[in-house]
Amino acid sequence: MRATCIAFRRPRSSPGLRDILIATAGHFHGDCEIAKPRKVVELCPPACAEEPKCRGRKRSAEAEAAILKATLYLLERQPLRKVTADAIARRAGVSKATIYKWWPNKSLVALDAYQASMTEQVAMPDTGSAEQDFIEQLKSVAAFYAGSLGRLVCQFLAEGQSDPEFLKLFRERFLYARRDTARVMWLRGVDRGEVRKEIDGEIVLDLIYGPIIFRLLAGHGPLSASESQALVEAVFSGLKRPGYRRPAKTKRKTPAPKRP
Predict the structure, then answer these.
(1) In Å, how far are 95, 190, 195, 203 from 187, measured between CA atoms?
(2) Beta carbons within 10 angstroms of residue 70's beta carbon
């Protein structure tokens, strides 16, 4: 007597791995024996094999928002080293296990919360002038760093000195993301012919943002709007392309009303 026995390999929880269905046929002798696999059917496209691994099950947007909000609340009131996963879980109304399904430690929870908050509060203007864009943007960066969460970036850097893996994640998830958005403003200026294209844009970003971080770390100078403007103007005095004039804004002509 022949019988068909279908065996399922349970999908792993990590997204990005392939769920495999193994269809086999064997002989029935009281028990079902599985022969060697004859056919493999892929249940997800090959592209999913290239997705980055993440922890645990798919995140709940509501739970994630609650965790990030709770983390920011705690970080505004005490330093990173005193904030615990237990405290975050209690404040967010979730279990500590939920946090560890999505983040390996509290420092990365804090990093994601910080990045989300800064992205929301820091402006990314497009005024038609790279210099003015950087002035407006640096003012909002300085205001953020001068706020209750500002010095947290110093704590991240301190944490990274004893934890190279965290420092790597700080660069990848925070620093590079911030530089990518700022680089857009520089490239717009290059495309308009406003600034000298032979100058390395990465050096320009260091010249503009480096002094703000240094002041935040050392505390030797203010993080004010006027200082931010003076800093950008000083940097752009050597970046502007000679003879460049910003195009005048053209006023739209209001069409004359039609006569009846």
Answers:
(1) 45, 5, 9, 13
(2) 22
d(C-alpha 223, C-alpha 215), whole Å: 7
pTM of the shown model: 0.70
Please, which residues have CB within 8 angstroms of residue 38's CB and are 6 or more apart in sequence? 23, 24, 25
Position of tokens 């390999």?
Answer: 9
CA distance 66 to 116: 13
Bridge partners, residue 40, by sequence: 22
Buried b (16+ CB within 10 A) or exposed e, 136-159: bbbbbbbbbbbeebbbbbbbbeeb
| SS3 (DSSP) at 181 | helix
Neighbouring C-beta atoms of residue 27, cutoff 10 Å: 12
**Cβ of 166: how many Cβ atoms within 10 Å?**
18
pLDDT in tens, 102-160: 999 999 999 999 999 999 999 899 999 999 999 999 999 999 999 989 989 999 999 99
CB 141 within 8 A of CB 212: yes
| Residues found in the chain | 260
Tell me the pLDDT tens digit for each residue of 34-83.
344 444 333 333 333 333 344 555 668 999 999 999 999 999 999 999 99
Query: Which residues touch 51 (CB under 8 Å, ≥6 apart)?
Result: 15, 16
For 122-241, CATH gives 1.10.357.10
Structure tokens at 146: 């001068």
Break the chain into its structural domains and give their ranges.
Answer: 2-50, 57-121, 122-241
Tokens 């210099």 — which residue? 131
Token pair in block for residue 70:
């709770």
User: Which residue's structure tokens are 């004859």?
Assistant: 38
- CATH class for domain 57-121? mainly alpha
